[in-house]
Amino acid sequence: MKNIETIIVGVTSKKQFSLAVREAQKLSELFGVLIYPVHIIEPLSVKLLHPTSTDETIDKMMMKLSDEIQRLYPDYGHHKIEAPLISVGNTAKELAHIAKKIGNSLIVVGRHSSGFRHMLGKSHAERLVKYAEGPVWIHPDKAFTGIPKKILCPVDFTTSCQKAAAEALSFAEQTGAKLEFVHVLPEVINYSDFDGYLSTNSGVTEITDDVFRKEAETQFRRLYNLLNIDEERHPQHVRFGDPSAQIHILAKEMKADLIVVSSSSNHKLEKMITGSTVRHIIHDAKVDVLVVK
């Protein structure tokens, strides 16, 4: 990855977060960067567990948590792990703030992939993507832990997606991973700025699947030329349907262990009706997700 000097990893003593720690260690070793373990204590948690808490009580809590976090970090040798940073505040906002303060950081966090908490809706990971100014790596608790060997990068041909595609390509070149791209055309097609490249001003009188497929293929050629992507090494796919569902289906078909996405989407109507595609990808993914800002 480009310009990454540190990895901020959000940790607790929970299993899914200890797995995120392992993921951060492997990435740290790969890129030769520092790890900053960070644990955020939500204010409500402090009040519930210690209703009469004083500053001394909070200090003791932090010392205990620091010891627990240190035990999550076995010494693998050459890559450096900084002392744990523990803070009280909103988890997503605090992690984003710390990453911004340190600079050139990749944030790595764990996420529940099943169970009641997963069904509740927005996770800390989804909120973090909203506030973070840099890339966020999300590791579901049941995902493969290690350097990805197969990467899927969804694109919608916007400028932000070009950046995600460039990061995916850079990562694939650094690791030797197989990389494939996909563009998904939603079933809702009757609005003017569809995907940002085909509109009612295009001179197209009859819109069909073939029209959109050919236009998508044209956009892929432009993207590949712009980023100097080898089409034979990095195949492209055009699919129709719900974007997040189709992305997960293809990821499963190609046995991808990382999905690289841009944090923004150009599907304005889809955002209004169903919410961001990126949010659905993060919430439902069974593999790691790298969100590029």
Automatic annotation (TrEMBL):
CDD domains noted in UniProt: USP-like
InterPro entries: Rossmann-like_a/b/a_fold, Universal_stress_UspA, UspA
Domain UspA: 5-138, 149-293
Highest taxon listed in the record's lineage: Bacteria
Family indicated by similarity: Belongs to the universal stress protein A family.
Name this polypeptide is given: UspA
Species in which this protein is naturally found: Lentisphaera araneosa HTCC2155
